[in-house]
Hints:
By secondary structure, this protein is an alpha/beta fold. It has helices at residues 16-31, 46-57, 63-87, 119-126, 153-163, 197-205, 213-222, 275-287, 311-323, and strands at residues 3-8, 35-40, 92-95, 102-104, 113-116, 130-134, 137-139, 145-147, 168-173, 194-196, 227-230, 238-241, 251-255, 262-268, 294-298, 301-307.
Amino acid sequence: MSLIVQKFGGSSVADAGKLLHISHIVKAAREKGRDVIVVVSAQGNATDRLIERAREVSGEPPERELDALLACGEQASAALTAMALASSGVPAVSLCAWQVPIRSDGAHGDARIAGIARERVEAELGRGRAVVCAGFQGVDDGGDVTTLGRGGSDYSAVALAAAFRAEDCLIYTDVDGVYSADPRVCPTARRLERVSYEDMYALARAGARVLHDKCVALAQERGVEPEVRSCETDAPGTRVGPAGSPRGVTGVTRREREGDAYAAVTLVGGALPSLEAEKRAILALDASGIAVRGIDAQERCLTLYVERERSREAVCAVHDAFFGD
Ligand code: ADP
Ligand code: ASP
Ligand code: MG
């Protein structure tokens, strides 16, 4: 039977209503005769709240214990999702990483997936259940819980899709695809039908959190083509794969680091870097009265540093200079 991986991010599983809503999406896939592996993130901002709680008792929480704590967010979400599925008439079982198991190295807070065992998941699917895997978690050789880095449930989803040779890997989120800029920052951003692995990786590294960078690298390595779509509409969104958008410039994003006075605004695309693009971006920022504090050129990227407070405006100004036609 054909298998599909459906990953739901934090806002898509934030409360009971959302859990029941996504249960219908899973149910619809099952009614088309497909086996389903569901991957979930922690609900809403549960991970941030757990981090705050750790900081209340420790200025520098031991990384092993922090991972043990943070993994609880996804464990709760997976169990609640399995319950919501059952009450929607879909038999389901939740599995944490150590139950699958999803093995990882021991790099707490930024672990890499080393392998996924197939037996348990296959047995559960064979019993006619939807399998709900907790995202973001791994288990290392010593049996300790690890986490995969912030936003790491995308990475879990692609790793599961690769391990089980899923026909589709759908990443459901709160936007209906990957855009030429964060649509919450830049109202003129356009949805992209396809993005190449290379551009998506560069966008993720430069701060577009819509997909995790390790997830994109693994997708390319294993030939998985994740599709980002909205859990509201369930309509086709953006496919990430070998072929990308035909434009030489794919998108613009920004990265702010805690404590830094400047933010990095990065243009990504196959035609970059170029002197021509550099001039156009600087002119656009100048026209908005935003000073450029530094420039950096890397493969497929052109980065401009601007004052942190003005980074949203800067993204829009640069975006419109390249996508305004
Ligand atoms: P989830 O909880 O579903 O994993 P995230 O918050 O991690 O969702 O990622 C989705 C968010 O990514 C969107 O709400 C959007 O604000 C942001 N985002 C940043 N850059 C882009 C982009 N280029 N295209 C689409 N969304 C983007
Ligand atoms: N819950 C984790 C985080 O907030 C992982 C994820 O959302 O993918 O970073
Ligand atoms: Mg995310």
